[in-house]
Amino acid sequence: MEVKGTLKSLLSDIRIKYNTFSKAQKRLADYILCEPEKVTLLSITELAGKGDTSETTVMRLLKKLEYDSYQVFRINLAKELTEKPGETLNEELSEEDGLATIKKKVIKHNVTAINDLEQTLSEDTIAEFLEFLAASKRVLFFGVGASASISQDALHKFGNIGINVCSHPDPHQMNIICAHSTPDDLFIAVSHTGESQEVLNAVSIARKNGSKIISLTSYSNSSLAKMSDLYLLSSTNDKKYHSEAMASRIVQLTIIDILYIATFMQNEDVYFEEMNKSRIAVALNKT
User: What is the pTM of this model?
Assistant: First the structure.
């Protein structure tokens, strides 16, 4: 019996793929994430009972996690808990939690989500992003609602080093810009669900004009991901007391930071000079 190594975290894989699970599979995933030690002692029938589902559903979940054997799954889970004690638990908030517990759990959840980027954001993906960026003459960051703040953060960072960037949170303006886009434009669309109609409309227009599309989304099976030349996954399983995309927003900001630093280090001397120009310009508004 072959037991998989721990280079790929099992619990992290569950969090990353959480948005692709069925409702019954999510119940199982929630239990595994909240009670991983107990799961290592459960039979497949007992685990199915914890999720109020069937053994067949358990095996379908394991298939998505690339496991053919429940026994191997349990052994690898136990091994992960032994090698990384305290790093795997991600407790749900409850109504009884005090302020200290709330603070601890929210920090833990956000840190866990960021750490999952070790698996979701590969070096090859970053390199591919850099290739798209180098081949473009203009970069446009689009997002609406909460995602607009992610786009604005990216605009500030990349514009600060002299890259030709723009961002428009207004859907009408987004469509107008996209209507005049060219194959030299790179669109980076941000949407937690990947189903924001305003973003999908803008991307559809830009695609018809031959522009390249990179998306930042939490759902690999979303409409936006499917329309993109490259997608960057910010998937997390946000808790029921969290606002929509709370941890995902933190992850997306971290991804933007990684892409920005990777870009800067590609041509450090040039970008450092451009950054100084920005600093001097901003200093005019300071006393």
Answer: 0.81
